Task: inverse folding
């Protein structure tokens, strides 16, 4: 933003033509974040848009050019002009709708090798050309929607036992699982590398699973703890594209009572009708509505023949 008189000075100094065209960023239609392979090609699922703004009514779009790159190499192009037939080359040949009236790039078939970086450039009737920043477009194949997740709690051992398996995903997903706490900023006790099982398939997709992994619940377990599994695909710029997330809450770490009384030297604390929780607090036991606490001062007297207790 700038003040009106500053903007006017800039426009006057640089020329209005420098601000007559704004292009990009490239984006997927229908507010999508990736193309879903299983949905097939469609205007809603597989169309890349090249948004632009013309600030002068005297000029019109003469040409829109698309460049498709994979591993920094140009592997396809698509050129659209309002008065001529559109043309596609390389991997895009035969995979793009040629008779669109807006110059957007609509894939008419989906293949794994059509994922990569796409950029577009607009040329106006006065010859001015501007290019949008390239956009990483992923085609994700989730193969199915079946997820298995089992959580068991053992209050006697103060343990949580978890198992999980999920559908195969292309490209290989990032899967995280374990004890999660918002107050701690994320996972604090995770399923480790050797506990994961990975199944590889011929199409390059990968399925993740683990079985009977144990997690300890104790006094260090935060009150907002939860067991969470999340699967996502990461883009090269570290943008996270979530696929699914499962969150489980169990009473084993939610039981809250009274903390144990601090003891000084020669003091003894007895708890009646009370049960110690896994998180180290006392609550009334099953047969009582309240718990009682008694504090004693213990004096030990040692003699040769006996030990006498007084309090």
Result:
């Amino acid at each position: 933003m700038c003040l009106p008189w500053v903007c006017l000075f800039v426009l006057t100094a640089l020329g209005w033509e420098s601000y007559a065209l704004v292009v990009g960023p490239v984006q997927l239609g229908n507010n999508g974040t990736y193309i879903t392979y299983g949905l097939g090609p469609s205007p809603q699922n597989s169309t890349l848009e090249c948004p632009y703004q013309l600030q002068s009514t005297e000029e019109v779009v003469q040409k829109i050019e698309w460049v498709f790159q994979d591993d920094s190499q140009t592997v396809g192009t698509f050129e659209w002009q309002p008065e001529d037939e559109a043309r596609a080359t390389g991997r895009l040949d035969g995979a793009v709708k040629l008779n669109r009236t807006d110059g957007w790039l609509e894939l008419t078939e989906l293949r794994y090798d059509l994922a990569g970086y796409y950029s577009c450039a607009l040329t106006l009737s006065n010859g001015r050309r501007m290019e949008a920043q390239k956009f990483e477009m992923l085609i994700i194949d989730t193969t199915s929607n079946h997820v298995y997740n089992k959580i068991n709690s053992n209050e006697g051992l103060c343990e949580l036992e978890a198992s999980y398996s999920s559908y195969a995903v292309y490209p290989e997903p990032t899967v995280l699982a374990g004890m999660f706490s918002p107050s701690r900023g994320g996972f604090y006790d995770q399923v480790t590398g050797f506990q994961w099982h990975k199944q590889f398939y011929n199409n390059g997709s990968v399925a993740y699973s683990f079985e009977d992994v144990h997690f300890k619940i104790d006094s260090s377990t935060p009150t907002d703890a939860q067991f969470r599994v999340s699967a996502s695909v990461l883009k090269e710029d570290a943008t996270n594209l979530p696929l699914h997330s499962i969150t489980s809450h169990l009473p084993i770490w939610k039981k809250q009572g009274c903390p144990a009384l601090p003891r000084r030297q020669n003091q003894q604390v007895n708890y009646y009708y009370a049960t110690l929780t896994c998180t180290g607090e006392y609550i009334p036991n099953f047969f009582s509505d309240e718990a009682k606490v008694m504090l004693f001062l213990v004096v030990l007297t040692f003699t040769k023949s006996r030990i006498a207790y007084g309090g």
Summary: The chain has one helix and 28 strands. The chain has a mean pLDDT of 83. The longest strand covers residues 206-216.
